[in-house]
Specification:
The complex is a heterodimer. In chain A, strand 3 and strand 4 form a beta hairpin. The longest helix of chain A has 15 residues. Chain A has one domain: Alpha-Beta Plaits (2-Layer Sandwich), CATH 3.30.70. Chain A is an alpha+beta fold. In chain A, helix 1 runs antiparallel to helix 2. Chain A has two helices and six strands; from the N terminus they run βαββββαβ. Chain B has a single domain, classed as Orthogonal Bundle (Ammonium transporter fold), CATH 1.10.3430. In chain B, helix 2 packs parallel to helix 4. The longest helix of chain B has 32 residues. Chain B is globular and about 65 Å long. The chains are: A alpha+beta, B mainly alpha. Chains A and B meet through strand 3 and strand 4 of A and helix 9, helix 10 and helix 11 of B.
């Protein structure tokens, strides 16, 4: 089992969600986050006073999945969330030790 | 001794009135009440009052979300404090019979001698009480305006003292100088609705307070940006609306001058919004919402002293002048000078008020209002000189008196909150409240509880 954490552009999320659902992937957790990688600072002006904005609003999607689904999900994210620009975000993949469904007590693959 | 006795007498009379015991009606010849004028000024008074909660939103949107309640509380507290101060002594200090051209005497202490009949000295067609109420709303908004300068760091107890002392020692005398029969009015200074009395006095006092109290923590380090721009837009809209009562009502009658004031007020606000946005659009490439509402308010400030004296075309010119001047001030000059006027009380009201007061000395025309005077443009050198004197006197007096008040208060209670309180935010540390305390998690848990 793996946990996929993708930090993406918020504007790409709806399309990604629909595509994941079409592939049978419905379980996910999302957060609004602020962050940056290599993205350049941008300037904003408030009453003419300059402000360097260096963290940008992103959306973080967390998905727990069986090992064999990882490649499919990653490919979907790459297909949909790639605009070719810096600031598209990153995907982090972690090994998942244990999963327990709270309502039934089911474990691991049964709980996913 | 005699003066002291009369103060005590008046205080006792004030106390009787507070108890609600009716005073015998004054038997003197009573002037007739004009119902149209009275209806108009009562409505205008309510509109001017609404400007202060409007200001609470205008300012509230500009602060960080940990301090939004503190600035709104300051605005609301001013409404409460100054309303009572005005009845007890503010009105008589401003509009009581003149003492030495600098202050009103105590004849109207506790509104003693004020009645449902018009006063022969002020607005002689509307009930004296209505005049008192209308003028009160100006005293409220003026004190509230200052709070923008020291937002996000002043201790509330110090603020309460400041409002009471400032209104009594700065606003009331300056209002008397210009409108209550004092020396600036006698000199011929024109201030239709409060360019010097309201905007310069509050702006300059704000600047002095900002310098005295020091910068916000992390002014250079942190990202300090408005937390809710729609609040600021809402507040600006309420200000623009209320300003019709402020300026048109200052005609103190539902007449042609009120109509003129209404139109030029709207015109100058619009031109101010256009000129500010144009300046920043050229400068940084983007027209901002913040710029549009700031420019409109700057335009409203500028037209305030001139509203009953200038033509609509002059209002266009004044609006075009004031936007870039204020923009330059808050974007460049403030940064150079290095003080922290959090929400630009001085940059908009002080600077805009100065532009307006001087422009009144340029654009005022007796062809527009025979009761006014001719400005530079119409050959009136005298008026321009007087306007400079009025501006200078207001700057000097407001600055010195405010400095004195701050020194006195700081001996009683610290003006600033502690560093820790400031970091946490004034809403929690001063008021024990959180503006946006109900998060989604709490709400959904309650809903689940109801369903099951």
């Amino acid at each position: 089992m793996k946990k996929i954490e993708a930090v993406i552009r918020p504007a790409r999320f709806e399309e990604l969600k629909v595509a994941l659902k079409a592939q049978g992937v419905t379980g996910m957790t999302t957060y609004n986050v602020m962050g940056r990688g290599k993205q350049q600072e941008v300037k904003q002006y408030y009453r003419g006073q300059e402000l360097q904005v260096d963290l940008f609003p992103k959306l973080k999607v967390e998905i727990g999945c069986p090992n064999e689904q990882v490649e499919k999900i990653v490919q979907l994210i790459l297909d949909i969330c790639n605009t070719g620009q810096i600031g598209d975000g990153k995907i982090f993949i972690y090994p998942l030790e244990e999963v327990i469904r709270i309502s039934s007590g089911e474990k691991n693959l049964d709980a996913l | 001794m005699k003066a002291k006795t009369s103060i005590w007498m008046a205080l006792i009379l004030a106390f009787i009135m507070v108890l609600g015991i009716t005073m015998p009606a004054l038997a003197a010849e009573e002037l007739p009440v004009d119902t149209g004028n009275t209806a108009f000024i009562i409505i205008c008074s309510a509109m001017v009052l609404l400007m202060t909660p409007g200001l609470a939103f205008f300012y509230g949107g500009m602060v960080r979300k940990k301090n939004v309640l503190s600035i709104m509380m300051q605005c609301f507290a001013v409404m409460a404090l100054v309303s009572v101060q005005w009845v007890l002594m503010g009105y008589t200090l401003s509009f009581g019979p003149d003492v030495g051209s600098v202050i009103g005497n105590l004849n109207f202490l506790g509104l003693h001698g004020v009645s449902i009949f018009p006063s022969p000295d002020y607005a002689s067609t509307i009930p004296h009480y209505v005049f008192v109420a209308f003028q009160l709303m100006f005293a409220i908004i003026t004190a509230a305006l200052i709070s923008g300068a020291f937002a996000e760091r002043m201790r509330f107890s110090a603020f309460v003292l400041f409002v009471l002392l400032w209104t009594t020692l700065v606003y009331d005398p300056i209002a008397h100088w210009v409108w209550g029969g004092g020396w600036l009015g006698q000199l011929g200074a024109l201030d239709f609705a409060g360019g010097t009395v309201v905007h310069i006095s509050s702006g300059v006092s704000g600047l002095v307070t900002a310098l005295f109290i020091g910068k916000r923590l992390g002014k250079e380090r942190d990202t300090i940006v408005p937390h809710n721009m729609p609040f600021t837009v809402l507040g600006a809209a309420l200000l623009w609306f209320g300003w019709f009562g402020f300026n048109a009502g200052s005609a103190l009658a539902a007449d042609g001058i009120a109509g003129l004031a209404f139109l030029v007020t709207n015109t100058c606000a619009a031109a101010g919004a256009i000129s500010w946005v144009a300046a920043e659009w050229l400068h940084h490439g983007k027209p901002t919402v913040f710029g549009a509402v700031s420019g409109a308010v700057a335009g409203l400030v500028a037209i305030t002293p001139a509203a009953g004296f200038v033509s609509p075309l002059s209002a266009v010119v004044m609006g075009i002048m004031v936007g870039p001047v204020c923009y330059l001030f808050v974007s460049k000059i403030k940064e150079k000078l290095g003080y922290d006027d959090s929400l630009d009380a001085f940059g908009i009201h002080g600077v805009g008020g100065t532009v307006g007061a001087l422009a009144t000395g340029i654009f005022a025309s007796t062809a527009v209002n025979p009761g006014g005077a001719d400005g530079l443009l119409y050959g009136g050198l005298h008026l321009f000189g007087v306007q400079i004197v009025a501006v200078g006197a207001t700057y000097i007096y407001a600055a010195l008196a405010t400095l004195l008040i701050l020194k006195v208060i700081s001996m009683i209670v610290p003006l600033r909150v502690s560093d820790e309180e400031e970091e946490v935010g004034l809403d929690t540390s001063l008021h024990g409240e959180d503006a946006y305390g109900y998060d989604d998690m709490g709400v959904s848990e309650r809903l689940v509880g109801i369903q099951s």
